[in-house]
Structures are given as C-alpha cells and as structure tokens.
Amino acid sequence: MKNKTKFILAVIANILPFAVSCFFYHGGAVLIMFLYPPFQIMLTLLNYAVAKKALRFCFLNAMMLLSSITSIEFATQLYYKNISSDTETLSVGRFEELAAFVFILVLTVVPLILRAIGTKNKESKE
After folding, report:
1. Are the CB atoms for 108 and 54 separated by under 8 Å?
2. Which of 15, 30, 92, 122 is most deeply packed, by most CB within 10 A?
3. How far apart are alpha carbons 36 and 39 in whole angstroms?
4. What range defines the domain where residue 23 resides?
5. pTM confidence score
C-alpha cells in the first residue's frame, strides 16, 4: 500500500510542469527554459527513488515527458495569443518542445543504463 501511494504521488508530481507553465507563461521561453531543467532533474531523481522497476520508471518519465511537451505547447499558445502574436514565438516554442524531448530522453536513458550496470555488478560479485 505504501509503494502504491508513493507511486500515485509521483504521477501527480510529474504533472506539475503543466501547472508551472500556466503560471509563468508571461515570462516567455526564457523563464520556462530556466525553470524546467532543474525541475525535471528533481522529478527524475524522485522517479528513480520511487520506481524500483525499470518499467515504472519509464512510465513516470513518460508522464513527465507528456506533461512537459503539453505544457510548453500550452504556454507557447498563451504567449502567442496574449502577448506576442509573431511567428518567432511559435518557432521558439517548437524548439523548446524538441529540447525538452531530448533532455527527458537523456534523463530516462542514463539512469536505466546506470541501474543495469549496478545490477550487473551486484550479480558478478555474488
């Protein structure tokens, strides 16, 4: 029961980037690009600590990816409609989405590789 509660709280925490982008879209891409990477690193560490299995870790990071891409698109559209109204805003938003995708992909693959190496080392010592 305790593990399920932690997992559910981790899923909710991975949806938080959407709320962050809704509140800080006035700052534009610069603010979101500086807020997201540290936030995503902390969420990856949380996901790694909560998920004991690789599939759960991938699921949690996929939730973070979906939330981040959706929130960046939402913030870009809000900024475009309410503040900027130029096409450069849309291209910067697309770049942010691509950067977030690559960053979260790296944050998913590196811990999986480290976990596999750690498991292999434990098995070889025994």
Report:
1. no
2. 92
3. 5
4. 2-125
5. 0.82
Phi, psi torsion values for 51, nearest 5 degrees:
-90, 115
Tokens 């879209």 belong to 25
Residues in the chain: 126
Q: C-alpha distances in angstroms, 101 versus 39, 81, 90?
A: 14, 24, 17
Chain segment 21-41, per-residue pLDDT in tens: 777 766 666 667 777 788 888
* 8 A C-beta contact, residue 73 and residue 29: no
Contacts 24+ apart (CB under 8 A), 73-79: 73/97, 74/18, 74/21, 74/22, 74/25, 75/21, 75/22, 75/24, 75/25, 75/32, 76/29, 78/22, 78/25, 79/25, 79/26, 79/28, 79/29
Is 51 strand, coil or helix? coil
What is the tally of structural domains in the chain? 1
pLDDT in tens, 50-90: 888 889 899 999 998 998 888 888 888 888 888 877 888 78
* pLDDT score at 54: 87
Element (H, E) at 119: helix 87-125
